[in-house]
Design brief:
The complex is a heterodimer of chains A (190) and B (239).
Chain A lengths: L8 H9 L3 H21 L6 H14 L10 H20 L21 H22 L2 H12 L4 H8 L3 H26 L1
Helix pairs in contact in A: 1-2, 2-3, 2-4, 3-4, 4-7, 5-8, 6-7, 6-8
Chain B lengths: L2 H10 L11 H9 L18 E7 L4 H11 L3 E6 L17 E3 L1 H7 L15 E7 L5 E8 L4 E7 L1 E2 L1 H6 L5 E6 L2 E6 L3 E6 L5 E9 L2 E6 L2 E6 L4 H9 L3
Parallel strand pairs in B: 1-2, 1-7
Antiparallel strand pairs in B: 2-10, 3-4, 4-5, 5-6, 6-13, 8-9, 9-12, 10-11, 12-13
Classes of the chains: A mainly alpha (190), B alpha+beta (239).
Chain lengths: 190, 239
């Protein structure tokens, strides 16, 4: 992590709880990237900045409720997820996942078989994104947590506020649905 | 980990996420300014604005009352502090189409999560009021102590900035769950502004001490013979 972490989150949270805004600013700076990525992946689109600013303000006001039962990051991301849901509720739409343009692929300069492989891999990724867009919201949320934000099962429990059993079963069900959505595509390509 | 899981992890790096903005300064400014600013809600402003406007008017400020009347037209509640004696509380509510329901039914009859204060436990009676065309009710009321203690939950936001300006004698600021709240100590007249903008006066009775606060998209009003600390403790215990 790029942050110069002379103090760990726990210590910063302690100080912030006692009104130390500089300590809280350090927490904000340290977690902005991950909060922003979460908001974008959950579909906040151009409102992601507003969402995370709101989430950081709310998190500060709720700090007394954070008892260290999960990582500060997971606790914060739960607030970000909640704010993103509020946004969807008021806005009535959610922005889907956007795949990085092929031009951004450093491997796209190569030629021959490798280039063909690259094209196929790109098509596969696009198919995966299309399939993800078709998943129900909760399925997508758990996929985002486990695979895109790389949260542990514990952190996912804290972030989504679901029981552990639900996180497990929802993950495997979401993966099964994804496989089902991808199968026809594979048949076509093969 | 199977192939699909590996693919998903690989896909993670390919997903377009714009560079994260620096919000540190913005957050600091917001935290250093206790009054919530409207900009916060700029994305919700586009939604149907069912603002709950609560104006607390000290006596002798009739000019302000007139100025406020325009603002109140939106929707919500208006409170006017009164020096008159409190009347018995056995009168109809100013809330339109009010009816008693079971808690489960109330949860289905409103669009917001209906929360119950843990400190008070299950309510003795639940009521919903002011339905829209689709049957979604705007207000849910939890009654305790034979109706002497009540929690109203409104689908909408209180204009806290406005509330703060309206604070006068008998009215103080408080905090619920870290957010701003307003405490009206003593009897006052109560007015409800319904969806159509009709002002419904509750003339026959004066409300007991009241705490007003906001959590999420829901505005709350707790009324009863309580001290401010008791009221805040109940408000803080919303599940």
């Amino acid at each position: 992590m790029a942050r110069e972490a002379t103090l760990d989150d726990e210590e910063l949270v302690n100080r912030a709880r006692h009104g130390d805004l500089t300590a809280y600013a350090a927490l904000v700076a340290g977690h902005t990237a991950s909060a922003h990525r979460t908001a974008v992946l959950l579909g906040a689109g151009p409102d992601a900045e507003d969402v995370i600013q709101e989430a950081f303000v709310k998190a500060y006001r709720k700090l007394s409720r954070y008892r260290g039962e999960s990582s500060f990051r997971a606790w914060l991301l739960a607030i970000v997820a909640n704010e993103t849901r509020n946004l969807h509720r008021t806005r009535g739409r959610r922005d889907g996942l956007v795949l990085r343009a092929a031009a951004a692929d450093p491997r796209s300069e190569v030629a021959g078989d490798v280039a063909v492989d690259t094209v196929l891999a790109g098509e596969r990724r696009a198919a995966l994104v299309r399939a993800l867009r078709l998943l129900p919201v909760k399925d997508r949320e758990v996929i985002v947590c486990r695979f895109f934000l790389d949260l542990s099962e514990d952190e996912t429990v804290a972030m989504l506020g679901w029981p552990r059993g639900t996180v497990k079963s929802r993950t495997s069900r979401a993966l099964a649905k994804l496989r089902g959505l991808l199968d026809p595509a594979e048949v076509r390509c093969g | 980990m199977d192939d699909l899981e590996r693919e998903l992890r690989d896909l993670s790096g390919w997903l377009e996420t714009p560079d994260a903005p620096d919000v540190t300064a913005g957050v600091r400014v917001r935290l250093a300014t206790p009054a919530p600013r409207w900009r916060r809600w700029r994305y919700s402003a586009a939604a149907v604005l069912v603002a709950l406007v609560v104006a607390v008017l000290p006596p002798g400020r009739a000019a302000l009352a007139d100025a406020v009347a325009g603002l109140v037209r939106f929707a919500g509640i208006r409170i006017v502090t009164s020096t008159g004696p409190a009347s018995p509380a056995a009168t109809p509510s100013p809330l339109p189409s009010r009816r008693p329901v079971a808690l489960d039914e109330a949860r289905r009859a409103v669009r917001f999560p209906l929360r119950v204060p843990a400190k008070l436990g299950p309510p003795e009676q639940v009521q919903v009021a002011d339905p829209d065309a689709t049957g979604a009710h705007r207000v849910a009321t939890l009654l305790y102590r034979g109706g002497a203690l009540r929690v109203d939950a409104f689908d909408g936001r209180v204009d806290l900035l406005f509330l703060k300006r309206a604070v006068g004698p008998g009215v103080a600021l408080a905090h619920v769950d870290g957010g701003l709240a307003v405490w009206v100590d003593g009897p006052h007249a109560l007015t409800y502004v319904d969806r159509a903008g009709t002002v419904r006066e509750e003339t026959a009775r004066l409300a007991a001490s009241t705490l007003i606060w906001q959590e999420g998209d829901v505005a709350y009003r707790l009324e009863g013979a309580l001290t401010r600390d008791e009221a805040v403790a109940i408000a803080d215990s919303l599940d």
